[in-house]
Amino acid sequence: NSTFICLARNSAEPAMSASMTLYDTTLRDGEQAPGCSMNIEEKIEVAKQLERMKVDIIEAGFAISSPGDFESVKAIAGAVKDCTVASLARATKKDIDAAYEAVKGAADPRIHTFLATSPVHMKYKLKMTPEEVLDCTFKMVRYSKDYCSNVEFSAEDAMRSDPQFLARVVETAIKAGANVINIPDTVGYATPDEMYAMIQFLRDTVPNIDKVEISVHCHNDLGMAVANSLSAVKAGATQLECAVNGIGERAGNAALEELVMAVKTREKFFEATCNVDTTQIYRTSRMVYTIIGQVAPINKAIVGSNAFAHEAGIHQHGVMAEKTTYEIMSPESIGLLQNKMVLGKHSGRHAFESRLSELGYQLNAEELDRYFEEFKKLCDRKKAINDNDLEALVNNRTQINPVYKLVGFDVHTGNSASSTCVVRLEKDDEVLEEVSLGDGPIDAAYNAIDKIVGATSHTLENYSIHSVSEGQDALGEVIVKLKINDKTVTGRGLSTDVIESSILAYLNGINKLVEKW
Question: The pTM is what?
Fold first, then answer.
């Protein structure tokens, strides 16, 4: 089929590949999804990794939504130097004021303002007439332009809008000074053919469309976010809005890693390229999953554990003879490397630092000291440390100054009586100790911690554990989600002892909740 399509293009000369702009909204649309919240340190960590991956634009947040979001957008704008940093804003002066104040310190700030254009949104949400929407679009884009030379306008719910009216809105936004026009499939309703037709219609209809970059922001409610985005590329869109691992509202956004690898793998078909460093994809995906307390589904495209696994005999035979029989891209292309070096307790700081550097981690001296100390502690428990262990150590970054620190614990458990756990925590140089019963050692430990911190109003929403590497001495990573009122936090713990990793995860979550109390 692809051969037929290529032959049917009726072009004597090969087309020039368009350079795609990658607009990442992991820290805004992704982070606002239930269960995906991040604190400011985690957001900065992700932003720096996105910068390292050479994403073009980072949408750092929705500055007006809360004081915390404003501060995180401002902090990211100050920390990132090689990417454009954007803040979302409704088409109101108050939102736009906050967005600019948050991003004005960025090397290249952008205001991203939006207004709905579909009949259902205009009637029931905005309570505005089409003419009022046109007037507001012009005024608020112009107002944004007075602040910032880089302005993006989004026609919310564009794919359920009347095409003729949408064309008028787009033309108006461009006249007001917008640099980028975004056509979102806000509710994931469109099909690839419809997306292609809409982009083509706007290019043919809007007289000043050549003055702006056309963007798309596709949601995955019907599982077509990536397909719709790529269809828009074929129609002439040059900016793709996406999120790492596809996280986002409801079923999520177009997945960054899938879009990037589709364009890289099928460059001639899409006649497009992008500047993303694909060798950072796997690391970025793991980082985001770890921070939000999730793991990739085993069949997740590009980054799932089965993405490059071959079990069927005929597949294994083909791959051994020639990898391209069943692999259209290599594991190395996304940064999934085979273990090149096994470290142990006799390994020095230089070997430790060198391997982390080879894995793509750029750490300062203070961080290296901290992780090397953790590495040495791990060496006392494990005979050999592989890359998965190293990455888990670095990704399991704990709070710099936690309120409560684990001093020690003692557990008594069996199958014929309730478990008992004694937990000792340190707070302000004072050691606090409590003992508690529980339905198993972990429940007992958590009850003892609750006694120490005096926590009664939070709930444990989720608990999960998985092995980081192989073998009986493998690191166990525990992820918990704790909720208090409407706030949910993720706690992570790492140890070869699953009870210790469970306690560390719970304590990590408690410390985050303490910050919010």
Answer: 0.85
Shortest CA distance to 343 belongs to which of 467, 466, 505, 469? 469
Could you give the maximum distance between any two Cα atoms of the chain, in Å?
A: 80
Give the Cα separation of 411 and 447 in Å (integer). Answer: 13
Residue 3: strand, helix, or coil: helix
Mean pLDDT in order along the chain per 10 residues (517 residues):
42 66 97 88 94 97 95 97 98 98 98 98 98 98 97 98 98 98 98 98 97 98 98 98 97 98 96 96 92 89 83 49 73 76 77 80 83 86 79 72 92 92 95 96 96 87 86 84 85 92 94 78
Residue pair 189/202 in contact (Cβ under 8 Å)? The answer is no
Q: Token pair of 207, please? A: 């007289």
> Could you give phi then psi for residue 9, rounded to 5 degrees?
-70, -20
- Indicate the burial class of 478 (C-beta count within 10 angstroms; 0-12, 13-18, 19 or more): buried
| Beta strand residue intervals within 135-258, DSSP E | 151-156, 180-185, 213-218, 239-242
8 A C-beta contact, residue 480 and residue 509: yes
Q: From the CB of residue 65, how many other CB atoms can be counted at a distance below 10 Å?
A: 16
The Cα 264–Cα 262 span in angstroms is: 6
Q: What is the side-by-side order of every strand in the sheet holding 459-467? A: 459-467, 476-484, 487-495
- Alpha carbons within 13 angstroms on the beta-carbon side of residue 344 total 5
CA distances from 24 to 69, 137, 159, 387 (A): 17, 24, 21, 27
From residue 424, how far is each of 3, 75, 401, 502, 512 by CA, in Å? 67, 35, 18, 15, 19
